[in-house]
Amino acid sequence: MGFNDKNSPSGSRGGAAETVSFSASLIDQGRYAEAFKLLAPLRSAENSLPPEPRPSLYLNLALCLMAAEQYAGAAAELEKALEAIKHLAPAGGFRPAGAGFGAAPGSGTLLSVAPVPPEHTELWQKLRGAELAGAVRPFRADYPACFPREAREDITVALISAYERCGLTEKAKILRAALTGPEFEEYKQQRL
User: Considering the entire predicted model, what is its pTM?
Assistant: First the structure.
């Protein structure tokens, strides 16, 4: 799509995936208003979007809403993100090269994400635990397709936070209890 292509829901260069990925950069910079301005038209045109950028769209929009203390709206977007991610890849799986979406930025080739080698499992668990213990970061459009399990976990952690801030503590407890594995120990310790 061209720079001023009228067919792009956002009117941006490259369409929805590029816009969602750019919104992640804006959110990382604390520019929530600008990210929201980009994401709102995509959200309005969500039914015309391909499935791949939808989980990232909903998560990034939820992060904007959380920054504006609109926690109920954020929870609704995160629930949609969890539903949308189910259509990308099998639970706990990865999307190998040639499986469609997930091109390495600027390379024209697809990412191939292999499972963590057994000798690095403990290190991966520590790194993942550190990620989960911090604030949930915005997603580029292709992140959920390449890392569906991790994306689902991040969305769940954000949803727990949104539920807690809405006063829906029972829903938050149920989701927190579903997070299992050593990578969640630090996260759970912080939340007790």
Answer: 0.75
